[in-house]
Design a protein that fits this description.
two-stranded parallel sheet, 7-stranded parallel sheet, 11 strands, alpha/beta
Length: about 325
């Protein structure tokens, strides 16, 4: 049974993954690194399997020491932010030096991030970072079992729109006319569990895309949210003025560098789309053992909850 090191345990995927690991008979030890052990302990499942360790995954020497101390053989690696490339490559270096890690599950992004036919997307910092990290994994870990998971756009990204949906009836980012696959973080967590249980056999050295079969466009999203909320919903425009405003709003809490990267990514995604192929979806269903969760069902449930909340706030 593996000893599993789970990065970003308090994040969108981690909060879904850790409970699955606790319930799985395949886990022997679950190590959760954090900068705030008290907070993570409060929000994590109560289990003797869980070991919370306080430190920074940006420190490769500390990472290496934890991998060795806990004899980690399986790593779930999910890192985001402006220092993603440096932190991830240093983490992989720590894994190699530790000598005990046998399996890596890395969270990348949906699609071939280095597809030269999608030049605009390839030239964004978001895609370049994922491309380089995937290359490090493919070429730099010859003795390790690895699987790359490529999720599409999270359902939970829509939380950024809830305030604008309430106040202005507007969805706060564009999706374009080609459309984008969407993904439930529960599906990403389940895919991770299945790969861990596989122990480097069927899914070894593969990239698996995770997301809905449907590509959701501006029109589709506008229609489903309007119906769910019982009022007209408009979409954020993709013109320069609107995207300048989008970048400014993102920069107020994410910082200007990350905001520019996100803006360029959305510009490219609107132009080129972000769908799954039929084969990618079939492979995902085989891994999960079921169909992916549907975005329409998510919106219907979330819309009903938001309506009830907003009505209660008015009372």
């Amino acid at each position: 049974m593996p000893n599993i090191f789970v990065t970003a345990a308090s994040g969108n995927i981690g909060t879904k993954l850790v409970p699955l690991l606790v319930q799985s008979p395949s886990a022997n030890k679950i190590v959760l690194p954090t900068g705030n052990s008290a907070k993570l302990a409060e929000n994590s499942p109560k289990s003797d399997l869980i070991n919370i360790v306080e430190g920074s995954i940006q420190d490769p020497s500390w990472v290496e020491s934890q991998l060795v101390e806990h004899q980690i053989d399986t790593v779930f690696l999910c890192i985001a932010g402006s220092d993603e490339l440096l932190t991830t490559v240093n983490f992989i270096s720590a894994m190699k030096r530790a000598g005990c890690v046998k399996q890596l599950i890395y969270i990348s992004a949906c699609g071939d991030m280095g597809d030269r036919k999608k030049t605009e997307l390839w030239l964004t910092s978001y895609a370049l970072t994922k491309t380089m990290i995937e290359q490090v994994i493919r070429d730099g870990l010859p003795e390790l079992a690895w699987t790359i998971l490529g999720p599409s756009m999270f359902f939970s990204n829509d939380t950024r729109s809830y305030g604008m949906l309430r106040d202005k009836g507007m969805f706060s980012y564009p999706l374009g006319k080609i459309g984008m696959s969407r993904v439930d973080t529960e599906d990403i967590a389940l895919a991770t569990l299945k790969v861990i249980e596989d122990q480097g056999k069927k899914w070894n050295r593969q990239k698996i895309m995770i997301g809905t079969k449907e590509a959701w466009t501006d029109h589709d999203t506008q229609q489903v949210w309007s119906k769910a909320l019982g009022k007209p919903v408009s979409m954020w425009k993709a013109d320069k003025e609107s995207m300048d405003t989008f970048e400014g709003q993102m920069g107020s809490f994410a910082g200007p560098a990350l905001a520019r990267g996100l803006r360029l990514m959305y510009d490219a995604l609107v132009e080129q789309g972000f769908p799954l192929t039929d084969e990618e979806y079939r492979q995902q269903v085989e891994l999960l053992g079921r169909e992916a969760h549907g975005y329409k069902e998510f919106v219907e449930k979330t819309g009903a909850e938001l309506k009830a909340k907003w009505e209660a706030e008015k009372a």
